[in-house]
Amino acid sequence: MKKPQPKYRRILLKLSGESLGGADGVGICPQAIHQMALQVLEVRELGVQVVVVTGGGNIFRGLSAGAHGIERATGDYMGMLATVINALALQDALEKLGAATRVQSAIAMSQVAEPFIRRRAVRHLEKGRVVIFGGGTGNPYFSTDTAAALRANEIGAEVILKATKVDGIYDSDPNKNPAAIRYSQISYLEALQKQLKVMDSTAFSLCMDNKMPIIVFDVFKTHNLRRVVLGEKVGTLVVG
């Protein structure tokens, strides 16, 4: 049987910390991470080069730390460390399934991860390894969405796949409004004007300026990542 041809050859998958935390989105859920690793492996087996950027909200969220009296920059660094924990957990799950991986961190910690070096990351991809980026951008005041937008452009990804718990972008919160309308495609400008929370404004502007397409989709539906990569109409496409 002929192997299906993927639409994309190099993708960046943005995983929120909550997606690794199971049903309640808190802590590390081995089953959730295993399922995520299976989906990544599915697209890797199509010959697609995969980069993953992990969030850290399941462990610590720097932005909300201010409410507890922690200085914003300190809170952000704590959040960055949480993303490395998630990157290592995903690496472990992928390697148990037989995938070759590398974790690169924007914060130097040579015992557990390589430093982020763009050319080395690209070489890993060319050798068939899944590259997981932890540590955000390495700077406070920037989200992991911004890290995803930055890394996608740096390593020449064709698309950012933003994994969420909803099946795309809506004109209002579908959990609160049953009549919310889902977009199958939307422009960057329209999403900004309507203040649809696709990504934070810094990340979104970076994608818009560099014409980096974004697909927002439900990663909790089995095989959805594979379907997106094969070009099926899944989720919402954000383009110029």
Which features does this protein show?
globular; 240 residues; Carbamate kinase; two-stranded antiparallel ribbon; 11 strands
Number of domains: 1
CATH class: Alpha Beta
By DSSP, the count of extended strands is 11
In percent terms, what proportion of residues is strand?
A: 15-25%
Instruction: Describe the main β-sheet briefly.
Output: 9 strands, mixed
Q: Kindly provide the radius of gyration, computed on alpha-carbon positions and rounded to a whole number of angstroms.
A: 17 Å
* CATH architecture annotation: 3-Layer(aba) Sandwich
Low-confidence stretches: none
CATH homologous superfamily placement: Acetylglutamate kinase-like
Counting H and I runs of at least 4 residues, what is the number of helices? Answer: 8
Spatial order of strands in the largest sheet: 4-3-5-2-1-6-10-11-9
Describe this structure in words.
This protein has 240 residues and is an alpha/beta fold. It has a single domain (10-239), classed as Carbamate kinase (3-Layer(aba) Sandwich). Helix content is 35%, strand content 19%. The protein has eight helices and eleven strands. A nine-stranded mixed β-sheet has the order 4-3-5-2-1-6-10-11-9, sandwiched between helices. The chain has a two-stranded antiparallel sheet with strand order 7-8. β1, α1 (30-44) and β2 (49-54) form a beta-alpha-beta unit. α1 packs across α3 (72-96) and α5 (144-154) runs parallel beside α7. The radius of gyration is 17 Å and the shape is globular.
